Automatic annotation (TrEMBL):
Keywords from the UniProt entry: Hydrolase, Magnesium, Metal-binding, NAD
Protein name as annotated: NAD(+) diphosphatase
UniProt GO MF annotations: metal ion binding; NADH pyrophosphatase activity
Catalysed conversion reaction: a 5'-end NAD(+)-phospho-ribonucleoside in mRNA + H2O = a 5'-end phospho-adenosine-phospho-ribonucleoside in mRNA + beta-nicotinamide D-ribonucleotide + 2 H(+)
Annotated GO biological process: NAD+ catabolic process; NADP+ catabolic process
CDD domains, sorted: NUDIX_NADH_pyrophosphatase_Nudt13
Similarity-based family: Belongs to the Nudix hydrolase family. NudC subfamily.
Nudix hydrolase domain residues: 150-277
Class of this enzyme: hydrolase
Length: 284
């Protein structure tokens, strides 16, 4: 499967150690809540400002994202009460997906993710001391107990299960009306990724699967997932939704697919890839 991961921030290259102070030529991405500051217009762009225009307190909290060419890029969290100049607005990352190129989208996603990490790690979880940036890698350190705190990354699996000409789809209890998706869930401690796929399918739908094969991955910054996509074949069992997370589960063929997740997600890419390969008579 040739999947274009839209949140893969490939335009950014990390150069450590990062500077002690915000470089004057840095490019800044502003984040407020879950939103990124954008210059409105017929073709919106992420708003970038330069450090000299920034209050000292915001300069100190800037989070290094990486270099784009020779320009260091940082994310800056802006307080909610800060007035916004004419022509600028905050957009959620999902909204931006339809408005800006993928390269920009990946930077916006990373900026929101790293700001979220910063908010959650300002104090050491073990001793309560304010943390400091590690500078030599993407981490913070506790100056008191020397604990290193890395960004949380939550691996999650998603699987397209095939049976004859159909695929297994599930409807989560919180999904929009009529919307179906693929079996998915987080990997648990003490578990391989493959075991997580078998477990999630069994828990959510009651069936067992075989011929599990890895297809692709995708960073998913909502807030810190890494999606790992698989394909598998039905082995045995009756489809029985768990009734807790999943209210309905069923087999769908290509001509009778339900309402699908938006094209932004790897879920949709898996389904589209399968539907395309079925119509071409190929194995996905
Ligand atoms: Zn500590």
């Amino acid at each position: 499967m040739d999947h274009k991961a839209r949140f893969a921030a490939r335009s950014l290259h990390k150069h450590y150690p990062e500077p002690e102070r915000l470089p004057v030529d840095a490019s800044l991405v502003f984040v407020r809540g879950e939103g990124v500051c954008v210059r409105r217009g017929s073709t919106p762009t992420i708003y970038n400002a330069q450090p000299p225009d920034l209050p000292e307190c915001l300069q100190k909290s800037a989070q290094y994202l990486g270099h784009r060419g020779s320009t260091p890029c940082y994310a800056v969290e802006v307080p909610g009460d800060q007035p916004l100049p004419e022509g600028l607005a905050y957009f959620g990352v999902r909204e931006l997906a339809a408005l800006i190129p993928d390269e920009e989208l990946a930077v916006a996603g990373l900026a929101v993710q790293i700001i979220d990490y910063d908010r959650n790690t300002r104090f050491c979880g073990r001793c309560g001391t304010p943390t400091k940036p590690a500078r030599i890698e993407r981490a913070k350190v506790c100056p008191s107990c020397h604990r290193a705190i890395y960004p949380r990354l939550s691996p999650a699996i998603i699987v397209l299960v095939r049976k004859n000409d159909s695929i297994l789809m599930v409807r989560g209890v919180r999904a929009p009306p009529g919307r179906y998706s693929l079996v998915a869930g987080f990997v648990e401690p003490g578990e391989t990724i493959e075991d997580a796929v078998h477990r999630e399918v069994r828990e959510e739908t009651g069936i067992s699967i075989k011929n599990l094969r890895y297809l692709a991955s995708e960073p998913w910054p909502f807030p810190d997932s890494l999606m790992l996509a698989f394909v598998a074949d039905y082995e045995s069992g009756e489809v029985t939704p768990d009734g807790v997370e999943i209210e309905s589960a069923a087999w769908f063929d290509r001509d009778h697919l339900p309402d699908l997740p938006p094209r932004l997600s790897i879920t949709r890419a898996l389904i589209d890839d399968w539907a395309g390969s079925v119509s071409r008579g190929q194995e996905p």
